[in-house]
Amino acid sequence: RILPLGVVLPQAWLRQVVLPQANPWPAKPEPYEPGPLAVACPPHSQGDNVFNGCVCDAGYSGVIIGTFSAPNFYSGTCEAVSCPSRSLGKSVASGCVCDNGYSGNITAISESPF
């Protein structure tokens, strides 16, 4: 509605009608990276995150695949590789020694045969 020139309005009325009010809407939330984008690589693997890919550590075997299923947002595991025949130990990752009568070094690597 347009008022005639020279009309003086009460200050309180001006604040309510003419002056802008603060934004009544809440601020936008921070961006959220859902799923594998924000998930660190699981135990015994390395990489930036699940989305960019994880590789099993030396002495471990497996495949990690990013998914959009909570809570992990990945499937697969990296399992310790058993000590080879004619050697003793829990796993290649924890160390193996050759049986009596055999010699050599057993070293964990990241490629098959691990």
Q: What features would you highlight for this structure?
A:
two-stranded antiparallel sheet; 114 residues; two-stranded antiparallel ribbon; 8 strands; 6% helix; single chain; mainly beta
Structural shape: elongated
| Tally of helical runs | 1
Low-confidence stretches: none
The neighbouring-strand order within the major sheet is: 1-2
Account of the protein in words:
- With 114 residues, the chain is mainly β.
- The protein is built from 1 helix and 8 strands; from the N terminus they run αββββββββ.
- β4 and β5 form a beta hairpin.
- The radius of gyration is 32 Å and the shape is elongated.
Provide a compact summary of the structure.
By secondary structure, the protein is mainly beta.
What's the SSE blueprint?
Layout: H1 11-17, E1 45-46, E2 55-56, E3 60-62, E4 65-66, E5 74-75, E6 78-80, E7 87-88, E8 97-98
Antiparallel strand pairs: 1-2, 3-6, 4-5, 7-8
